[in-house]
Amino acid sequence: MHERSLASSLLQQVSQLAHDFRDGHLASVEVEVGPLSGIEPTLFEVAFHDLAVERFGHDVELIMREVPMVLLCETCRQQTRCDTVDFQCDKCGGNSVRVASGDAVILVSVDFATDASPDANSHETAMTVPTRR
Amino acid sequence: MVDSENKKPVLERKRVTVRRDIQLESKLNAQRERERLTKRGTLVVNLVSSPGAGKTSLLEKIGQRWLGSYRMAVLVGDVETDRDARRLEPYFPVAQLTTGGACHLELPLVRRGLEAIGDPDLDFLVIENIGNLVCPASHDLAEHVRVTMLSVTEGDDKPAKYPKMFRTSHALIISKSDLLPYVPFDPELAIQDARTIQPKLMAFTLSAVDGSGIDAFCLWLEQQRREHVLVPKTT
User: Fold this and answer.
1) Is-contact B122 B229, C-beta < 8 A?
2) In chain B, helix, strand, coil percent, each to 5?
3) CB of B29 within 8 Å of any CB in chain A?
4) Nearest Cβ partner for B11 among A99, A103, A128
5) Looking at residue B83, what is its pLDDT?
6) Angle CA(B35)–CA(B110)–CA(B211) in degrees, nearest 5?
């Protein structure tokens, strides 16, 4: 199950961002996956949550958006969007196409929650998003 | 900002926009390793298939043909045991990469394997991947060419079922062709399906038992080395 390996790679990058963003609590991670990303979304999600708890000591919300695959026809330059794995240009019908997107897992954004209260430091432990280890 | 009665904090969200392939770093590392091996004249071949398709048998046959002609080494990925590595030791320097359960190889394991054999100057480095048509498709091992092997006993519907593997491959080997008279496998259909996914795919039908088709595959490997390594592309 290579989803665990990919989720681990994602969390390593998120961890680096969390390190750089010291004054916030890691709240959510948004990713895009396409038909050729090479992951099973449910398995990826399970692996992500398991590893997030291991790494940060608390769960992190994962927002996973499924996006279509975008093909660029090398013959007629038409762009084709498809939700399934199909390598046919919808204009000329040829299959000499380049996959422009939808073949990777893209880390879109990471949300951090910060306490905007004037006396934030005094009640940090009461925040709904737990403190990072 | 604070409810003075309940002392509840007020949370604000701050978003850091990234928009980056999560495998970008590993892909760049693989590209650097590929360039390093290109400069040394080594063609790297990532050989993938389901378990039991005949990867090791094919490499034994190549070893018999090329013994004394080329400097070739093999990194053998397996979940357990070093049996495949032992079969290949008479022909090549071999490093066994035992993953202990992991379903695919990654670049650090390849580097470890190269170190284990002393990182010698090579003409060909073949990485015999873990038997699996799913997970290895997502990992660049610094190969110049990815070769997917499909045995006739597995069924001719596999290209359509495992599109990412065939999409990312340069060549398809249909193996165990000596069994074609006994199994309902249509090589033309498998090749046609695979080329619907990857039109540039080269196709070879061969048998490690009767030796048919192996010379053609060896010639293709030599041609790939000339194209990728001896005359590196400028793009």
Assistant:
1) no
2) 40, 20, 40
3) no
4) A128
5) 83
6) 95
Among A101, A131, A100, which residue's Cα sits nearest to residue A114?
A131
For the entire predicted model, the pTM comes to 0.88
Angle CA B114–B22–A104, to nearest 5 = 100
DSSP B131: S
Task: Please check whether residue A49 is in contact with residue A57, taking contact to mean a CB–CB distance below 8 angstroms.
Answer: no
Pairing type for strands B145-151 and B171-175 reads parallel
Q: How confident is the model at residue A125 (pLDDT cuts 50, 70, 90)?
A: very low
Predicted confidence (pLDDT) per residue in B163-210, tens digit = 999 999 999 999 999 999 999 999 999 999 999 999 999 999 999 999
**CA-wise closest residue to B149 among B178, B186, B167, B175:** B175
Residue numbers in B near A61 (CB within 8 A): none
Q: In sequence order, what are the beta bridge partners of B127? A: B46, B75
Tell whether B100 is within 8 A of chain A (Cβ).
no
**β-bridge pairing A105-115 and B11-21:** antiparallel
Structure tokens at A73: 């026809």
Task: Report CA-CA distances (Å) from A4 to A1, A42, B104, B114.
Answer: 6, 11, 12, 25
ipTM of predicted complex: 0.84
CA B145/CA B44 separation, integer angstroms: 7
Radius of gyration from C-alpha coordinates of chain B: 21
Backbone angles phi, psi at B123, to 5 degrees: -90, -40
d(CA A47, CA B219): 43
Contact A109 B15 (CB under 8 A): yes
> Hey, what are B33's tokens?
């390793």
Rounded Cα distance, A100 and A81, in Å: 10
